[in-house]
Amino acid sequence: MATEQIDLATRARDAVQTRAELPGMSLMEHLEELRRRIFWIAGYLAIGFIVAYIFHVRLYNYVQKPVTDLGLQLNFTHPTDGLNLYLKTSFVGGAIIASPFILYQIWLFISPGMYSHEKRYVWPFMSATIALFLSGAWFGYRYVLPGAIKVLVLQFGHAFHPILTIEDYTGFFLAVILGLGITFELPILIFFLALFGIVDAKFLLKHFRYAVMAIFLIAAVICPTPDPIGMCLFATPMLVLYFIGIAVAWFVHPTRRKKAAAIP
After folding, report:
1. Does the N terminus or the C terminus of the chain have fewer Cβ atoms within 10 A?
2. pLDDT exceeding 70 applies to what percent of the chain?
3. Considering Cα of 132, then 137, then 140, then 142, what sign does the dihedral take?
4. Are 196 and 15 spatial neighbours (Cβ–Cβ below 8 Å)?
5. Secondary structure element (H or E) that encloses residue 21, with its range
6. Is residue 127 within 8 Å of 116, Cβ to Cβ?
7. pLDDT tens figures, 202-250
8. What pLDDT digit, counting tens, does each position of 23-57 carry?
9. Closest CA relative to residue 84, chosen from 144, 176, 169, 201
10. Which of 104, 135, 134 is nearest to 122 (CA)?
11. Beta partners for 74?
12. What pLDDT is recorded for position 263?
């Protein structure tokens, strides 16, 4: 195990050194480029927030729907709770609206450190990133969130009178939606690790048992319910995504691309 960890660290160091040899910008030029990209990202977030706030009532109805479908009602304990709910949902909604433009700015920042043949992945990268995040968010909204509320409130709390506050529910809602949206980005992480030659499909298959352990640990942390069924509900799509990531790693790894290029 220690030898394998050293080998992985060696691969990562070699990948960084190889990238460092690419002709690129100086440190000050990198900082200036970073400042420019942050400026554009902040602008896109502001525009997305304004657009989302125009429809904040409709967004609120979507946020509240998992609760109202179970016959429950949200309450507030502070005069600003309602406003905070509108602002939070508008910010998250605006970030989702602006996500294609934000991802493109991120790509523009990292692209100078990539080879020309790697830059052709920009549109597949953006499309897959957005699709995976939305899939994870939809999965959480459609299945995990209603199931968690039903188990926690209607089953474990059936002997008590539930008082769900806007602040607590909003935090719970965002934790589930954003948590699953981010975990669904696992193939994208594997994509970059394989693209830079740090991992390959063989390495991922060989260490599958460690990946399963890590996935279930992550699922146990982010799962809002204490029962094993909820944890499995989080872990199952992550396992599927891990195998998708293995296929992605096989396709984009530099060794496989060199072999494919050598075939006349």
Report:
1. C
2. 79
3. negative
4. yes
5. none
6. no
7. 888 888 888 888 888 888 777 766 667 767 777 888 888 888 888 888 8
8. 555 667 777 888 888 999 999 999 999 999 999 88
9. 169
10. 104
11. 164
12. 46
Cβ atoms of 109 and 33 closer than 8 Å: yes
Q: Exposure of 92 by Cβ count < 10 A (0-12 exposed, 13-18 middle, 19+ buried)?
A: buried
Q: At residue 227, what are phi and psi to the nearest 5 degrees? A: -90, 150
DSSP state of 164: E
Residue 12 in this model has a pLDDT that exceeds 80: no
Residues 106, 123: Cα–Cα separation, whole Å: 13
* Cβ 81 vs Cβ 164: under 8 Å: no
Convert the pLDDT of each residue in 244-259 to its tens digit: 888 888 877 666 555 5
Q: How far apart are CA 180 and CA 140, in angstroms?
A: 6
Angle, helices 27-54/56-68, rounded to nearest 10 degrees:
70
Q: For 215, phi and psi rounded to 5 degrees?
A: -65, -45
φ and ψ at 3, to 5 degrees? -65, -40
CA distance 171 to 164: 11
Q: What are phi and psi of 119, to 5 degrees?
A: -70, -15
User: Whole-prediction pTM value?
Assistant: 0.73
Contacts of 106 by beta carbon, 8 Å cutoff, 6+ apart: 37, 41
On whether the CB atoms of residues 115 and 22 are closer than 8 A, the answer is yes
Cβ-contact 74, 165 below 8 angstroms = yes
C-alpha span between 211 and 33 (Å, rounded): 36
Which range, of 16-20, 182-186, 187-191, 229-233, averages the lowest pLDDT? 16-20
> What's the pLDDT score for residue 41?
92
